[in-house]
């Protein structure tokens, strides 16, 4: 529902939810949805559409059989079927024979230059990264890409989530996530891949939504040690960055400054803005499981985070769910890029 205005090639006509509770939540959260059918009944929604987009959800393990039944019904009804990457991987895993019938992978065969150095990519890039899941990162990168597209710029957007291009996001090449390649090989391969893509498409701007968290949250929630953001940000110079954070009632400025410094020195990216999400997380240190519990609040909660300021460093906060705050950030980001990058 959040992204329905960012699908230029599609019109959202129906959304299928898993339960009555989900149905009531969406009806309460989104007031102006008269043109969209919200239902628990997949069979009621299917005749209305030409394309069915399957997304991942929490507790997908209880939904695999249901998903596959729905997929077969869509196929039998001659509907186009598209998936988020996470949904496809969960449903079919490495069963190539089964999943390629619906999902065309961007294999992006890894090409490592013989000279073994990073090629200069002379196009401005914005990095959007986060501390982990549910921190409004995807919303943020979509809003930034849409803002610049609306101004007439040719934007390449690599999404931290993959909706199979439904909202004009590009899919990262598969080799980026393959452990059989070393980090150095993947950085060089990503740089070569992006260099060739930019040579063909001549973008005005690249927006890089970085999958996963930038670093471990503690000794059990490791976020894969921020491996993917590290690879992405070392394959191209990122001109400016946005860090998406969880909500905290009160936070010491040193806490945010340390994250900014981490991004500057580890990810070669200066963080100019911090997006405060409407979610927080907590971890039970006595638990044997490496699991976070997420708490989701109304969007207005982000405006209530208090930063205990100790010096004159400018910590710029915004909420992507607040239209006024979001527009201010995008406009200032545009003005700063205009001043510093000749392409603008």
Walk me through the topology.
Blueprint: E1 14-16, H1 20-29, E2 37-39, H2 42-45, E3 51-54, H3 64-76, E4 80-83, H4 85-92, H5 96-99, E5 125-130, H6 137-150, E6 155-158, H7 183-201, E7 205-213, H8 227-234, E8 240-245, E9 250-252, H9 253-266, E10 271-276, E11 279-282, E12 293-296, E13 306-308, E14 317-318, H10 323-340
Parallel strand pairs: 1-2, 3-4, 5-7, 5-8, 6-7, 8-10, 9-13, 10-14
Antiparallel strand pairs: 11-12
Would you kindly provide a written description of the structure presented here, covering whatever features stand out?
This protein is α/β, with parallel strands linked by helices. The relative contact order is 0.11. Strand 1 (14-16), helix 1 (20-29) and strand 2 (37-39) form a beta-alpha-beta unit. The model is unreliable at 96-104 (pLDDT under 50). It contains ten helices and 14 strands. It has a six-stranded parallel sheet with strand order 6-7-5-8-10-14, sandwiched between helices. The two termini are 32 Å apart. Helices cover 33% and strands 18% of the residues. The chain has two domains: 4-99, no CATH class; 125-340, 3-Layer(aba) Sandwich (Rossmann fold).
């Amino acid at each position: 529902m959040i992204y329905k205005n960012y699908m230029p090639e599609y019109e959202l006509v129906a959304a299928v939810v898993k339960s009555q509770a989900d149905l009531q939540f969406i009806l309460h959260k989104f007031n102006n949805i008269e043109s969209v059918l919200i239902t628990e009944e997949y069979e009621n929604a299917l005749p209305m559409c030409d394309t069915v987009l399957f997304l991942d959800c929490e507790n997908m393990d209880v939904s695999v059989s249901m998903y596959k039944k729905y997929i077969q019904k869509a196929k039998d009804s001659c509907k186009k079927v598209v998936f988020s990457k996470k949904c496809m991987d969960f449903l079919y895993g490495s069963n190539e024979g089964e999943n390629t019938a619906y999902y065309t992978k961007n294999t992006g065969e890894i090409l490592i230059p013989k000279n073994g150095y990073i090629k200069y990519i002379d196009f401005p890039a914005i990095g959007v990264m986060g501390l982990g899941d549910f921190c409004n990162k995807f919303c943020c990168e979509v809003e930034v890409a849409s803002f610049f597209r609306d101004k007439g710029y040719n934007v390449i957007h690599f999404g931290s989530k993959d909706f199979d291009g439904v909202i004009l996001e590009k899919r990262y090449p598969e080799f980026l996530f393959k452990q059989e390649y070393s980090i150095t090989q993947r950085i060089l391969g990503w740089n070569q891949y992006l260099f060739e893509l930019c040579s063909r498409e001549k973008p005005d701007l690249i927006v890089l939504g970085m999958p996963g968290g930038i670093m471990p949250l503690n000794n059990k929630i490791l976020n894969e040690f921020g491996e993917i953001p590290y690879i992405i940000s070392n394959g191209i110079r990122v001109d400016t960055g946005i860090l998406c954070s969880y909500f905290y009632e009160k936070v010491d400025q040193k806490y945010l400054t340390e994250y900014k410094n981490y991004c500057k020195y580890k990810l070669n990216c200066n963080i100019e803005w911090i997006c405060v999400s409407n979610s927080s997380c907590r971890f039970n240190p006595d638990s044997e499981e490496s699991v976070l519990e997420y708490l989701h609040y109304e969007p207005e909660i982000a405006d209530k985070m208090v930063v205990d300021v100790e010096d004159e460093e400018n910590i710029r906060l915004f909420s992507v769910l607040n239209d006024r705050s979001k527009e201010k950030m995008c406009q200032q980001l545009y003005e700063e890029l205009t001043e510093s990058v000749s392409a603008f």
